[in-house]
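Re: the pair you flagged

First of the two:
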Amino acid sequence: MSGTRIGDTGPARTRNAEQTRADILAAARARFAADGFERTTLRAVAADVGIDPALVIRYFGSKKDLFAAAAHVTLDFPDLRGIRPDGLAEVLLPRFFAVWEGQSTFLALLRSAMTSESAAATMRAVFVTQVAPALSVVTPDEPARRIGMLGSFIIGLATARYVLATPGIAEASHAEITRWAGPVIQHLLTGPAPHPDVRPDDG
């Protein structure tokens, strides 16, 4: 698809820095969503906007930095301290659904994270800066382990639903997924932690 221009910007017009940056981000989101991280080029993004590729580098530096800006995710979690454990999924999953289905670059980010360290770093940054701080307030112990396990579950759920189109998951409604995933989310965040393995004495 890299030879096809995404979005016609129309006749040349006077640009200012803010508008140029916004146009580059919009074109990059469309490109990354359509072509993925590896196949998207700065030259293609520039062509979609109708500017010289040097301007893309001027504003964003590199494809890695452009991807990080274009794939920025805001989960906007509320304060979870007043939420009952059995109600956590009903609060958390709508935030995830909004990102999964409402941001065009999410699927590109998810797919690219499997093979691109840049995309994986972007995913980790979202986890460290947004997910972990929001969820740590409800964990009774072992916050890093609990939140890491939940993150693995959530990423697996998104992959099964939106990338692999796994039967039973892909066609399920939001309400159905929430009902099935709710007990898992509750247990991982607030349930009893497993006892550490006890090794028998070697003597």
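Second of the two:
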Amino acid sequence: EKSFGMTSTQGGLCGSGFIGGFMLMAPLAGLFGHGRRGPVIIGVGLFLWTASVMTTCFAPNYPVLLASRIVAGVGEAAYSPLALPMIDDSASPNQKALFGGLFFATIFIGSAMGFGVQAPFSTWKHARWIFFVEGVAMVPFGAFAVVCRNRFNKGAAEIAEHTLLAAADGVSTVDEPAPPSARRQVAMLFSSPVYVSLMLGYCATIFTIGGLAFWAPSIMTSVLGVNKTTGGLALAVMTGASGVFGSLAGGVSLDVFKICLGGERRLLRSILVALVCSVTALPALIGMALLDQPVLWFSSAGISQFFMFMASYPANLGMMEAVPPQARGLSLGVATLLSHALGDLIPPVLIGMLVDRTHTLRPGMLILALWGIWPILLWSVAFCIARSRRSDHSCTGSLEFAQ
């Protein structure tokens, strides 16, 4: 802020600009990222991201800095909704869950690395070179996505196979492998009650996560009486560890449930894992809202974060599986948009208004905790619908075979 003469509001606007570019572009990337176009869009997005972070490094003034952060969000959005479907297509059947969990774990590894790398630098003059180095490091990945795009193309045979498996789960399907129109893709999403329930439950989870991320430092200092530096470090370590190990556990648990359930389809398994995680996280969330003792509060925070992060990959996988293959990218792009619009954009303002009225954080924290009931309800609905449709399909198939 000192280097560019920014106010705190202008500094915060750089972060909001990144999120704005990210959430608005994600659905478009998902909409047009079919087949061989997906890796190309990712490659172009990564090159755009590289150019923007290098511009950030050499930004001469605040307007250029702000513009570069917005463009960085746009570039990263090209990657977000398309990477998981491509990983899922490329991994072997026995590695899909593990690789999906690793993908979500790397998000938190990157965040932890960001905190660690910037810590030694006290001025922007030296810290800005971090952006240059990470921009250069991204170039090979963008080139790989474009050059090796044929490896990630989901062919007609695979789409047909997915269609048969999806029909067993009661998911609406299409016959042709060609990319449908934008209007039809949107209709595919919102005509699926399973997808809508999963997506809204995911938005509710992000609502709680976003609210806690914003207000947890204030809770530590004003409610728990913990030193800001010590508490901030403990919170960063706890969040990073919960994110990494929770995401990995989400992938591993899908394989465990596969063994326990005797080969149930991935849609049902993913919903069930996410549902179990949300049920387990709720008591710990309530503990965060009510406890005053620092050790107990941090224990509750760690448990709740672990299980909410553990639900992230299964929930996203469920959204992918709840729609036809041609709409998978859009399903995650729309979820990205709405999880920010209905999720982490609201709690900072809402809880702030409550604090101004009540002069305490307790009511706001209780709202965030009880908001964890929504994923339980919505994912329960999704599971019941998916299971009933699969049962109906099985009964119909058996009857037709008998006839």
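The longest helix spans residues 228-260.

-B.
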